[in-house]
Amino acid sequence: MGAKTLYDKLWDEHVVRYDDKGTALLYIDRHLVHEVTSPQAFAGLRLAGRRPRRVETNLAVPDHNVPTLDRARGIADPVSRLQVQTLAENCAEFGITELGMADPRQGIVHVIGPEQGFTLPGMTIVCGDSHTSTHGAFGALAFGIGTSEVEHVLATQCLIQRKSRSMLIRVEGILGPGVTAKDLALTIIGGIGTAGGTGFVIEFGGEAIRALSMEGRMTLCNMAIEAGARSGLIAVDETTLEYVRGRPFAPQGARFEQAAARWRTLVSDPDAAFDRTLWFDAAAIEPQVTWGTSPEMVTPVNGRVPDPRDEPDPVKAEGMRRALEYMGLTPGTAITAIRPDKVFIGSCTNSRIEDLRAAAQVVAGRRVADNIDLALVVPGSGPIKAQAEAEGLDRVFTAAGCEWREPGCSMCLAMNADRLAPGERCASTSNRNFEGRQGPGGRTHLVSPAMAAAAAITGHFTDVRAL
Amino acid sequence: MDKFENFTGIVCPLDRANVDTDAIIPKQFLKSIERTGFGPNLFDEWRYLDQGEPGQDCRHRPRNPEFVLNDPRYQNAQILLARENFGCGSSREHAPWALADFGFRVLLAPSFADIFFNNCFKNGLLPIELAAERIEALFRTASGPEALRIAVDLPRQTLTPAGGEPISFTVDSFRKHCLLAGLDDIGLTLEHLDDIRAYEDRYQTQTPWLFPENDPETP
Ligand code: SF4
Q1: Which residue of chain B is at minimal alpha-carbon distance from A66?
Q2: Measured between alpha carbons, how far is B184 from A284 in angstroms, rounded to an integer?
Q3: Residue A266 to residues A203, A263, A398, B207: CA-CA distances in angstroms?
Q4: What is the enclosing helix (H) or strand (E) of B102?
Q5: What is the CA(A130)–ligand 1 centre distance, in A?
Q6: Which residues have CB under 6 Å of ligand 1?
Q7: Which domains does chain B have, with CATH numbers?
Q8: Which residues contact A52 (CB under 8 A, 6 or more apart)?
Q9: A332: CA distance to ligand 1 center in Å?
Q10: pTM for the full model?
Q11: pLDDT tens digit sequence for B125-168
């Protein structure tokens, strides 16, 4: 065998067998479960009289439907409540560990996996959720699956898979001050389009990636799915190992050292061949703001809303027209003239401690602008909330007029009570600006945590570097 | 899963790129713990003028006359003609459940999002990628005054528009086999239990931390 990419290594290590057509049975090391995409899978298991093959490899958490206020009161919406209860009942019946709503470790599924050390380098990790790509930041092969596959993993510890093509995105140079992994992710998606990564597993490499913290790497891999990729991947280095060391579910002591020796090999060989390689220049990247209803509809904060008449492709131009109409925007408007009604800091993209610190730094000593009806800060997990409170970040936010909430998906997809009203505009640190994503008729602009905080303070999109 | 049988069906042209799974089935309907009953809420926000909530009787809701699914020409359509990157966004299998529950059996587009594409096959739906020019031409005919009918032949991998020449398409042979035989993936995989066990035995010694249940040293 010649030189291998990181993806080749992870793939080869997990193939149980190939059939005669070259389809692989891929072994799955860890499975994360949440309440929305699992009920029908457990029902299927029950119906067939099957049990989870290795119950310890599963970890469940309710996150999408959980309230971010008054948790002690339970869930008001009966349909949401039933879904969360169903998860608890299914986990109890099948013996799966669940970090329930009252557990201090509860949080967004893609935040708690790494935080608990359940996510480790070299693993295959799946979850019935597209943003499972987040875990690729650890040099793990992680991807989202549908409910039928959730059932398949539970029953067999395997998935039927075909290998994707490989793409390397090299980001050379260093991101400027005030420019974050989120801006990098949005710039890449703006460059290659939301279908640009379809059929690929994308490895992110280069100086700028090496310089990112684990939080930043998770933000970037989280958004790989918005570029259409099956997974995002980042090679293991000392930053990875330092993050993993000592986490509750991670191996400890001598076992950790044994594992770490193996994990250090989880890098693409220097002469490994990729099906496609792209380069980005980190120094040229500016803070980004999306203006449309797809993450690829994005522009630097100092740019303007584009004009569909300048778009030569008629299908694209029509998509832009529809997006602008939905967003209530006119071509040529300066991005900095757009005034949100709400601000949402949270989601599996940007709700980790580093994100909260960055936002708090911007709002510290300032007040949320009068035109902002609500500035919501939702930490990604219980431990993050506790850490932020220990650092006094909660008081920084509340003193500025922001709301400080309990962990969960919250207004990222508005399945709980946190949502936009029709026509409302939101500066959001989440990952999708699709029509109705944050509430029917709601208008979402995706930004980094610092940029969301800057919008909250000034009442319009603002280049955070100038604050 | 039901076996996929050949059929001739009406084509409904949905002329938008990047149709995401939130649009296919909005999130409020994801709270259901069932696998069926999503058809009436397929494309809910585009299809109806009011705000859709779970548990509603959709028959009397005001419909959006502009939306293609409400066009009398496309009633009972079984083939959805779409634009690029159809099914992007969330991994929710509720999207193919809703499409199948509505009555769609074949989806045609220049490209599909990856997870959605996979999920379709698990639910008896056949997504077919065709070249952009081909899709463009189909949009022209399907949007004409008369609805377009296409005969779908999966064993031969052809689509034959009424009065036209057969168009051949590609499909992964394993998936084709499963669709035609109506096979349950789990049952198929469990036939390889010996291979799975052998794999586990091998990796347990190499990477004991991945097997905490048998590793005295992991926490
Ligand atoms: S935070 Fe948003 S994107 Fe992430 S898992 Fe929750 S709903 Fe999905």
Answers
A1: B31
A2: 50
A3: 12, 5, 43, 14
A4: helix B94-102
A5: 9
A6: A 63-64, 108-110, 129, 131, 347-348, 409, 412-413, 430-431
A7: 7-183 (3.20.19.10)
A8: A45, A58, A94, A95, A96, A154, A155
A9: 32
A10: 0.93
A11: 999 999 999 999 999 999 999 999 999 999 999 999 999 999 99
Distance from CA of A80 to the nearest CA of B (A): 6
Please state, in angstroms and as integers, the Cα–Cα distance from residue A171 to each residue in A7, A137, A214, A285, A451, following that order: 18, 15, 16, 10, 22
Out of A37, A160, A199, whose CB is closest to B91?
A: A37
Helix (H, G, I), strand (E, B) or coil at B50: coil
The model's pLDDT over A267-321, given as tens digits with 9 standing for 90+, comes to 999 999 999 999 999 999 999 999 999 999 999 999 999 999 999 999 899 999 9
Verify whether the Cβ–Cβ distance B31 to A123 is below 8 Å.
Answer: no
CA separation for the pair A220, A231 (Å, rounded) = 11
Question: In degrees rounded to 5, what are phi and psi of residue A298?
Answer: -140, 150
Phi, psi of A5 (to 5 degrees): -80, 165
- Between strands A200-205 and A231-233, the pairing is parallel
Residues of B in contact with A316 (CB under 8 A): 17
Q: Which amino acid is at A137?
A: A
Which amino acid is it at A110?
H
> A410: which residues sit within 8 A by CB, 6+ positions away?
A68, A344, A346, A347, A376, A378, A416, A418
Neighbours of B26 (CB within 10 A): 25
Exposure on the CB side of residue B37, measured as CA atoms within 13 A: 13
Task: Provide the strand spans (E) within A309-412.
Answer: 342-345, 374-377, 403-404
d(CA A86, CA A4): 43
The Cβ of residue A24 has, within 10 Å, a number of other Cβ atoms equal to 19
**DSSP label at residue B88:** B
How far CA B168 is from CA of A432, B112, B131, in Å, comes to: 36, 18, 11
Residue ranges of alpha helices (H) inside A52-180 are 78-94, 109-116, 147-156
